[in-house]
Design brief:
Largest sheet: 7 strands, parallel
Shape: elongated
CATH superfamily of the largest domain: SPOUT methyltransferase, trefoil knot domain
Number of domains: 2
Strand content: 15-25%
């Protein structure tokens, strides 16, 4: 499929993409930038419309494998001027390509584990960048999945998707209710630990070699009380300086890579 030139915001494909930008979800969301689009292609994600700017199309023609993969995967391929692309782009410095994607979510019951289970849980992380960073960190740590509980940001929003840096397509991301998630973990004999800034037990004193799911809450409020009350362990990061706590994305990195360290 060769790119079709579109210059009007009234074009039906542009209107559809603007609607997806306003209301993204797993059925349709936008991946912006060549790295994210290539990650979607490598994961065989279903692509709908693909938009490229005039300048980016010239660069695409210098990368025949990427260009060929896009032409084969896209259900619509459009070349647009920069001013029109800017209506859809979210990045401060648009890179000239975005794609409509569909996320093939794995159900909880369909998860497979590479070894002792390692799962990251968003228990109400409301900032999209932090939620995306959690998915990225979980992927880097080799986690089996990320479970996103109600009250969290929309992982399919443009900001969250960009913050995953492509990891959204590498690690299963599952939206689930709290009871559904807890029942699943109990059935699989996976301990649910909570990251808690006020916990008395340092995470370094815990044995993470057994199956574990670690829940991270919103920075300002911590873990939801109902989830905190049912955690098998509440663990904290020892703070040596004057900072009250760490950013949730930094906390996730400390926790998840302590698991990696212990399991190496």
């Amino acid at each position: 499929m060769e790119p079709k030139t579109v210059t009007s915001a009234q074009n039906s494909a542009i209107k559809m993409l603007l609607g997806i930008k306003r209301h993204p979800g797993k059925e349709a969301f936008l991946a912006e930038g060549p790295h994210l689009v290539e990650a979607a292609l490598s994961a065989s994600a279903k692509l709908g419309a693909v938009l490229v700017t005039n300048d980016f199309l010239a660069r695409l023609e210098e990368n025949p494998p990427f260009f060929a993969a896009l032409r084969q995967a896209a259900r619509g391929f459009y070349q647009v001027p920069e001013r029109l692309f800017a209506k859809l782009a979210e990045a401060k410095t648009p890179q000239g390509i975005l794609a409509q994607c569909q996320y093939e979510a794995v159900p909880l019951g369909g998860l497979t584990f590479k070894g002792p289970a390692l799962i990251a849980i968003s228990a109400g992380i409301r900032e999209p960048g932090n939620l995306g960073a959690l998915v990225r960190t979980a992927d880097a740590a080799g986690a089996d999945a990320c479970i996103i509980l109600p009250g969290s940001a929309n992982i399919f929003s443009s900001k969250a998707v960009r913050a995953t840096a492509g990891s959204l397509f590498h690690v299963p991301v599952i939206e689930a209710g709290m009871e559904e998630a807890l029942n699943y973990l109990k059935g699989k004999q996976v301990l649910m630990a909570g990251a808690d800034a006020h916990a008395g037990k340092p995470l370094y004193d815990w044995d993470f070699r057994a199956p574990v799911a670690i829940a991270f809450g919103e920075e300002a409020h911590g873990l939801p009380p109902a989830l905190k009350a049912r955690a098998g362990a509440l663990l904290g990061i020892p703070i040596r300086g004057g900072a009250e706590s760490l950013n949730v994305a930094a906390s996730a990195a400390v926790f998840l890579f302590e698991v990696v360290r212990q399991r190496l």
